[in-house]
Amino acid sequence: MTDRLPDMLAATVARSPDAPAISDSTGAAWSYADLNRAADEMAQVLTGAGVVENDRVLVLVENCATAAAVLFGAWQIGAVAIPFNARQTEGEVARVIRHATPAVVVGTVDASPDAARHVAALGGKEVTGAFGTIALHKRASDPEAGLEDVAVLLYTTGTTGDPKGVMLRHSNMIFGGAASSELRALSPEDIVYCALPISHVFGLVSVLTGCVLSGAHLMMEARFSAQKLYDAAMGGVTVIPAVPQMHALVMQYVKEMGLATLNAPALRYVSSGGAPLDPAWKRKAEGFYELPLQNGFGMTETTSGASATRNPIGSPDISVGPATPGTELSIDATAPGGDGVAEGEVLVRGPHVMKGYFRNEAETAKALGADGWLRTGDLGKIDENGNLHILGRSKELIIHGGFNVYPPEVEAALNDHPQVIQSAVVGRTKDGDEEVLAFVQVAEGDAPQLDDLRAFVKERLAAYKRPKHIVLATSLPAAPTGKLLKHKMIEAFADELP
Q1: Lower Cβ count inside 10 Å, N or C end of the chain?
Q2: CB of 166 closer than 8 Å to CB of 212
Q3: What class does CATH assign to 397-496?
Q4: 3.30.70.100, 3.40.50.980, 1.10.10.10, 3.40.50.2300: CATH of 5-170
Q5: What distance in Å separates the CA atoms of residue 304 and residue 122, rounded to the nearest whole number?
Q6: Where would I find the AMP-dependent synthetase/ligase domain in this sequence (predicted)?
Q7: What's the pLDDT tens digit per position in 303-318?
Q8: The whole model's pTM is what?
């Protein structure tokens, strides 16, 4: 296997140049030869703008074929791409520019009015070519040693304090893409639906890189909607990777149509990532798709997947599966939140672990040990079959009355209720303790009574785990991935909390 992403694309082009590569919501429909041609032309544009090896190229994106061309064009000339969601604020964009000092800022304006707005504010100009239309703002070149093997910097949304741009090597991404392709048995006959933003590691590596490696057809959607996912599934999509929130919303959409199942003719593989599953919700989702719902665990620092399931439909397994081939998992039960025996911080080691945090040696040293183990910040346990179970983020652990409360367990109890679409549970410090708060999404005109919901939860949770306050809402703050933004819940619903 090649160790650089442009060579990976070239190999796929050599095998099947005319095969469908990418289609998107702008109307683009590219073959692999088209993608390669667009990347070549983009490399010329970037070189003409003064970009050289080890320069950073900030790409303000929403999912589209042009975004893939910009990434591969940057990689062709040895530059480091920084895919960053264009829907972030001006302050968040400025923060990345200050830290990463990119040589150029590129916006995928065909698919994103927000990208056009950001680059226009910087004084950028539009450029049109085989890649579509971009807006480009030229800055001073600032090459830096030590980036020769780095393909991308990925900045975590909503981080505070020192910036943490995750450096992923070409080899990290190819390993992660190959693992994803093998897990899903991707082939040129597949059509893979991608509403997961490619500014996030899940969409970038598990989906885009995995598809290009295998020669599959990638159907990119700039912004998730339940209706678009439904239409794509009914239109012949074969693989849907998503996060639980996306599954919950499409299930609700179909329910409102008066249907119980999706009944998609070509769909063969559905996966969920980003949050633990509870048995009742998993059964509901499998009944809806009439397929097994595969689950997995990964993060930006592990180039997406580190473990994954391969279960048959109806399996009671709600773990995130065993380690993917080539990956090692371990538990540090002595870490904060651990029980000193079997539960503790999840550690990962393997060829997909990041190089480190860009220009942040202190945070790199905290996360990466000299022995190669990465501290994930997630709490978990490994069962007797070698399957990893995620209990929650160590920073989200709620300690109420001296007891550990894992938010996913409380969310699972709430989500079992037939009128609950999804929920987010957080802790709030009050009177020297932490109280459990729940924010619950329901459909307009179909909300449960609070007393009924409390009684429902009471049957499923010990007293110390039950929410002190429950807020019902028809929408909850969410990232472009669909993942709920727990750190914004209290602020968003401050008026509804005592």
Answers
A1: C
A2: no
A3: alpha beta
A4: 3.40.50.980
A5: 32
A6: 11-358
A7: 988 999 999 999 989 8
A8: 0.86
